[in-house]
């Protein structure tokens, strides 16, 4: 759910909201496989915008932080860290995940051109120096929730996701599933998170976790010209070195899919 603060070639100087996207533009939600260390355990989410006619291929994400912060792990879980939004060329964003041989899933969003430009403007507004920093919250405000909210808030048509409570599923059960092979991380996080994590959660509330955000978007429908169609129209692994499909890190969707 986090992203190491690395100095990437930031490209804000090359583009601006005034550079409207063309019909050739596409928007993707990027979902990166969880890693081994604590700040990688839940994966990472980002938005990718490609416009071949404008030479644009950018990643927007909300996972920049500094390891210099005291008590990093504790503050990470308690939501006391200041994070910020980052923008970089897609190839630089992908390098770290390809280097560790991780899956990188790209989900194409079924937007109109007006919706693409609305998202484009909103992202650059969020990237202004006075807006890009935010107080990270492990459950309610992180890289995945910000991706989901930005994607959904740019929709101009009617959309719906069949939301439902998932019997027996809570934030804690999902967290424990991700950490089942990391007992010390699991113990530490369970000691820190509050009793609110034991409340039943709905499907949309699980947008906290990047791969759940991906699944929610894939289950979302949109109405265009009086026709119901998929909101997420294509999903594929863009790290071609990984040939086998990734194993889901949470079994919540084996419970959820039959209800949709």
Provide a concise account of the structure shown.
Helices cover 28% and strands 25% of the residues. The chain has 260 residues and is α+β, with helices and mostly antiparallel strands.
Characterization of the model:
The chain has 260 residues and is an alpha+beta fold. The chain has one domain (12-240, 248-259). It is built from 8 helices and 12 strands. It has helices at residues 72-78, 90-99, 113-126, 143-153, 171-178, 183-192, 210-218, 252-256, and strands spanning 26-32, 44-51, 56-64, 82-89, 104-109, 133-135, 159-160, 165-170, 200-202, 221-224, 227-230, 232-237. The strands form 3 sheets. A 7-stranded antiparallel sheet has the order 6-4-3-2-1-5-12. Strand 10 and strand 11 (227-230) form a beta hairpin. The chain starts with 25 loop residues before the first strand and ends with a helix.
Widest beta sheet: strand line-up:
6-4-3-2-1-5-12
**What's the structural domain tally?**
1
Overall structural class, as computed from helix and strand content, comes to alpha+beta
Distance between the termini: 26 Å
- Give a quick account of the main beta sheet: strands, pairing sense, barrel closure: 7 strands, antiparallel
Q: Which quaternary structure do these chains form? A: single chain
Mean model confidence by pLDDT: 83
Instruction: State which percent range the strand residues make up.
Output: 25-35%
Work out the number of β strands: 12
Radius of gyration from the alpha-carbon trace, in angstroms: 18 Å
Order of helices and strands: EEEHEHEHEHEEHHEHEEEH
Q: Helix amount, in percent?
A: 25-40%
Low-pLDDT residue spans: 1-9, 248-260
What's the shape?
A: globular
Count of DSSP-assigned helices: 8
């Amino acid at each position: 759910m986090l992203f190491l603060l690395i100095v990437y070639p930031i490209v804000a100087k090359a583009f601006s909201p005034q550079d409207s996207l063309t019909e050739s533009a596409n928007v993707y939600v990027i979902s990166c496989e969880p890693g081994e260390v604590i700040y990688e355990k839940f994966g990472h989410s980002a938005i990718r915008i490609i416009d071949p006619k404008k030479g644009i291929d950018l990643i927007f994400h909300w996972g920049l932080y500094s390891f210099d912060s005291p008590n990093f792990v504790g503050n990470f879980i308690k939501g006391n860290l200041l994070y910020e939004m980052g923008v970089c060329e897609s190839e630089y964003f992908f390098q770290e995940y390809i280097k560790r041989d991780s899956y990188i899933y790209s989900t194409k969003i079924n937007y109109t051109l007006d919706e693409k430009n609305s998202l484009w403007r909103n992202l650059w507004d969020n990237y202004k120096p006075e807006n890009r920093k935010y107080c990270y919250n492990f459950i309610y405000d992180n890289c995945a929730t910000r991706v989901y909210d930005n994607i959904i808030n740019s929709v101009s048509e009617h959309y719906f996701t069949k939301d439902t409570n998932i019997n027996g599923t809570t934030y804690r059960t999902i967290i424990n599933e991700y950490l089942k092979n990391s007992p010390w991380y699991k113990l530490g996080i369970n000691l820190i998170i509050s009793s609110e994590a034991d409340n039943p959660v709905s499907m949309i509330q699980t947008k906290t976790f990047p791969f759940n955000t991906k699944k929610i978007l894939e289950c979302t429908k949109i109405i265009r010209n009086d026709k119901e169609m998929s909101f997420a129209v294509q999903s594929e692994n863009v790290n071609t070195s990984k040939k086998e499909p990734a194993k889901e890190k949470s079994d919540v969707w084996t419970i959820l899919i039959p209800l949709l």
